[in-house]
Write a structure and sequence with these properties.
With 658 residues, the chain is an alpha+beta fold. 29% of the residues lie in helices and 25% in strands. It starts with 8 loop residues before the first strand and ends with a strand.
Length: 658
């Protein structure tokens, strides 16, 4: 079926350009808006678009999808429901996909792979914090603002957020699967469902592919064989450093609970990235013929198949489903969205009930196991009492060897700052080693940062702290306006765009166990965030952590021809601060320290015409001149990580009419 034709209208605001892609869910076209801007439109296939419940779900999810405004996510701009046509209008990203980069370049340098995937995890962390799961992470859905290898920090854009999630609701109702076999998390195969940990797993597969040039379970067999290896097989080891393999191994854990969150994964990749600067790409090798089985693979609960069926599918043997395994689609990259025929399978609960009726409980395997476990427990308690009681001490439940560690990452701030913390306790020293990592997204960040280092419990005195890696002093409330206990001012940091810097601190506290260490690290993170986002605080201290937004202000009326006065007003938790502007154009003097902190200075500021040629912007993007008379005009702006800013409407008149 032909979805559209070039020049055909899409709703009331767009016209189709050219088709740029096609998949199981729909086709992607360029579209042009009424004001001449180019977007991408994903037009869903009729079998999805003509389902009233799916359309209703899209309308219901519209505010969620439109609210995913993050620099690493392809922004959804509009949704068009027109007869049997359902289209999602998104930003057009011209640099191609990560799939194109892999085909062209083969295995990437570990540093490049880590940097790209860290930005994918940034996008996932943002979406997961708003309750949205992607469900189909793969190179095809990771777009680049510039073609590879010219792209750099901040150029990654994850697309199709919410599309698989919404369409998948219909697929799941028919006991089918949605996803791509090479990237499916094991719980999607074993349980028929997947959440944020599934996105983390799929991104782990993506990282493996960028490093190795192939996915971990590529190999012989059907598409279902490939998918089932996620459940039953270990990912083959590739020749990378142990630290890199440990990251992959955790991301690809069969147990979703053992995987890091997206934000934790991003922090880990950025922490390891500097060590990989000199590493070369590995040589691509062919997929193995055989895979090492996991010790205990998960049972697949699909409702449509028995375990015998699934074992046969995995080996490629035919079974009594029309003599073949289910078709999931092209294994390499195609998203599949297919129902699987339902088969009546007697519930396991009924079988267990029959076993209990037929066999006395005391003779069942479960009863024997319970009896044996009880006996072992009694012996262990007696031995423990005899051995430990004379010592007169209760050992805290710490990790092996008494060492403990904990990682924590805060949500990304509007300025693009992400703070991650790692605390390690060594009993021999009686101190916690705290490593604080500051990472930036698309704009460089600098200036002063607040860090709260609390005591172990409420009411305890602030601990002694020795810092390394920055100039650090006590936070002074009389100067900064932030009255917070145990606060430190970290100065002199320069965080590059897309990069990270670290400071370390030795803290003289001794947590009794892992739970105490976890609570201490969480308390410091929460206290830092609460102080930085206190709406009662006045002043401009710690702008990288406190700035929540930027307002673009202009006069209500401007005469032509004359420069347009534009004021960038910082917005704190307590509201807009008109007395301390970030920047004023035309500039007269040195830019504010706040601007330097959140955007690298004037180089992070750009203005553009928002009224179709009535304004002229100089080559630096910093000075705007009113040229044409118009009753309504706006100016657009970007400031560091703050993009898509726009002023209120203003009028342009002539001097004779003023």
């Amino acid at each position: 079926m032909q979805f559209a034709q070039t020049g055909q209208a899409l709703g009331a605001s767009y016209r189709f350009g050219e088709r740029v892609g096609s998949g199981a869910v729909g086709e992607v076209w360029t579209v042009t808006s009424a004001d001449g801007r180019t977007f991408a439109a994903k037009v869903l296939r009729p079998e999805h678009a003509d389902d009233p419940s799916l359309v209703e779900r899209f309308v219901r999810e519209r505010s969620v999808l439109l609210g995913l405004q993050d620099s690493h996510i392809v922004t959804v701009r509009d949704m068009v429901v027109e007869g049997a046509r359902l289209a999602i209008v998104m930003d057009y990203v011209a640099g191609g996909s990560l799939r194109d980069a892999v085909k062209e370049a083969g295995p990437l340098r570990p540093l490049d792979a880590f940097n790209v995937v860290a930005e994918v995890f940034d996008a996932l962390a943002f979406a997961h914090s708003r309750g949205v799961t992607h469900r189909d992470i793969k190179p095809d859905n990771v777009l680049l603002a510039r073609p590879w290898p010219e792209c750099g920090a901040g150029d990654v854009r994850v697309s199709d957020f919410g599309i698989s999630d919404v369409v998948g609701e219909k697929i799941r109702q028919t006991t089918g699967l949605i996803g791509t076999p090479h990237y499916m998390p094991p719980e999607l195969i074993s349980q028929g469902r997947s959440g944020p940990p599934g996105d983390v797993y799929s991104t782990g597969v993506l990282l493996y592919e960028l490093l190795a040039g192939r996915t971990p379970f590529a190999g012989p067999g059907t598409d279902f064989s490939v998918a089932y290896r996620h459940v039953s097989s270990r990912p083959p080891r590739i020749p990378v450093d142990d630290a890199v393999w440990n990251v992959l191994d955790r991301l690809l854990s069969k147990d979703p609970a053992q995987r890091p969150t997206a934000s934790e994964a991003a922090a880990t990749l950025r922490r390891l990235a500097p060590r990989l600067a000199g590493s070369s790409p590995i040589t691509r090798t062919e997929a193995p013929e055989d895979f090492d089985a996991v010790e205990r693979s998960a049972t697949v609960v699909r409702g449509a198949f028995t375990d015998e069926d699934l074992t046969a599918f995995a080996s490629g043997s035919p079974v009594d489903h029309d003599g073949k395994a289910p078709e999931l689609g092209e294994a390499d990259s195609a998203t599949i969205a297919r129902p699987i025929p339902r088969r009546e399978v007697r519930p396991r609960a009924e079988a267990r009930l029959e076993e209990q009726v037929a066999t006395p409980f005391w003779r069942t395997r479960k009863a024997l196991l319970l009896a044996g476990a009880a006996a072992l427990l009694v012996v262990a308690m007696v031995v423990g009492f005899v051995v430990l009681a004379p010592a007169g001490q209760q050992l805290p439940p710490t990790a092996e060897g008494g060492q403990m560690s904990k990682q924590l990452q805060d949500a990304a701030l509007p300025t693009g700052l992400t703070i991650s913390r790692e605390a390690s306790y060594e009993p021999s020293s009686g101190q916690i080693r705290l490593t604080v990592s500051y990472a930036a997204q698309k704009a460089p960040l600098s200036g002063e940062f607040l860090e709260v280092i609390p005591g172990l419990a409420d009411g305890e005195a602030c601990p002694a702290v020795t810092w390394d890696g920055a100039s650090v002093s006590r936070n002074q409330a009389s100067i900064t306006g932030l009255d917070v206990e145990c606060g430190w001012k970290v100065s002199g940091l320069e965080v590059p765009a897309g990069g990270a810097v670290q400071v370390t601190a030795k803290v003289s506290v001794s947590p009794a166990d892992q739970q105490a260490l976890d609570a201490w690290l969480t308390a410091g993170s929460e206290a830092t965030t609460a102080a930085a986002q206190d709406p009662a605080v006045k002043g401009t201290a710690y702008p990288v952590q406190r700035l929540k937004g930027v307002e673009v202000r202009t006069p209500a009326r401007v005469v032509t021809p004359s420069p347009l006065k534009i004021t960038l007003v910082p917005v704190w938790a307590g509201g807009a601060d008109e007395l301390n502007p970030l920047y004023v154009s035309p500039a007269s003097g040195k830019p504010s320290q706040m601007l330097a902190a959140v955007s690298g200075g004037e180089k992070g500021v750009r203005f553009s015409d928002g009224c179709g040629g009535a304004l002229a912007v100089d080559s630096a993007g910093l000075t705007v001149t009113a040229l044409q008379i118009t009753p309504q005009c706006t100016v657009r702006a970007s400031v560091g990580n703050f993009t898509e800013l726009q002023s209120p409407s203003f009028g342009i008149t002539s001097r004779e009419n003023s």
